[in-house]
Task: structure prediction
Amino acid sequence: MKKIVPVFFTILLLSVGLLSGCGEQNTSEKPVKDEEQTMKKEKLTEQDKIVQIETMLKEGLRDGADVEYDEGKKQFSVIMTNDKLKDSLNKIKEDPSDKKWPKLIKAFQHLSKQIESNLAKGYTIRLVEPDNKEQTMLTIMDGKTTYDFATQ
Result:
């Protein structure tokens, strides 16, 4: 079984740091590390892996986002719930040239590659607009950007 590498978790924490300002919240990496160890030690079914990845996404985003999985679309939707994160995304929406946006895209691309290596090809990460859950800011599949609001 392929393993999630520690870079996966670093990227998650980096993306939160980019949006919220580094070091403002004190969090423990222990729950994420526990999830990583569980995936390494156990042979998990695909459904178990999906649940594990949802949990890791939420913890990696410091519980500042909800993660929903749509089995039919094979898509993880990231919905920011933290006001600071929502404000940061709204600022990016207003000014797509914000230097945080390419860094965030790169972080989600890396995350997508990790999901691909631990589940299978064809899984999408969708970053939802903060004020409208029906709208999408970014989608990435297998490490490649398939939709970026800034280029539309």
Remarks:
- The helical segments are 6-20, 30-41, 46-60, 83-94, 100-118.
- Strands lie at 65-70, 75-80, 124-129, 132-141, 144-148.
